[in-house]
């Protein structure tokens, strides 16, 4: 084991040391997908991304919005992964017109929320499950 590895305690945020200065994909709890270069993090897994773009998808098309420097609170991160720069250009997605993709993406989000609300209502009324954000859902 390398001498440097011994100095870094193995924790969730400590394991991010190898990801610094690499292009990363971050998926947030609200569903947004951010691509950027990880510049810094702390013990709470709060992240600082540089050259950040937010990407939305519809079918085999995507659109991006430049966000610049982005500070992400660790509790909002669902997924963090390194982007393989050698494979990135081989993904069969095409950039498309932002307005059109935004409209279609928003329609998908509304439909998904409607389905989730219907599901939550059935689970609550028929099976007694708590609604999201309800009792016992906090931490």
TrEMBL record:
Residue ranges of every copy of the Sm domain listed in the record: 11-86
GO CC terms of this entry: Lsm1-7-Pat1 complex; P-body; ribonucleoprotein complex
Gene Ontology BP annotations: deadenylation-dependent decapping of nuclear-transcribed mRNA; mRNA processing
InterPro entries reported for this sequence: Lsm1 (IPR034104), LSM_dom_sf (IPR010920), PTHR15588 (IPR044642), Sm (IPR047575), Sm_dom_euk/arc (IPR001163)
Primary location group: cytoplasm
Record key words, sorted: Cytoplasm, mRNA processing, Ribonucleoprotein, RNA-binding
Name of one Pfam family that matches: LSM
Location(s), subcellular: Cytoplasm; Cytoplasm, P-body
GO molecular function: mRNA binding
Quaternary structure annotation from Swiss-Prot or TrEMBL: Component of the heptameric LSM1-LSM7 complex that forms a seven-membered ring structure with a donut shape.
Role summary: Component of the cytoplasmic LSM1-LSM7 complex which is involved in mRNA degradation.
Similarity comment text for this entry: Belongs to the snRNP Sm proteins family.
Name of the molecule in the record: U6 snRNA-associated Sm-like protein LSm1
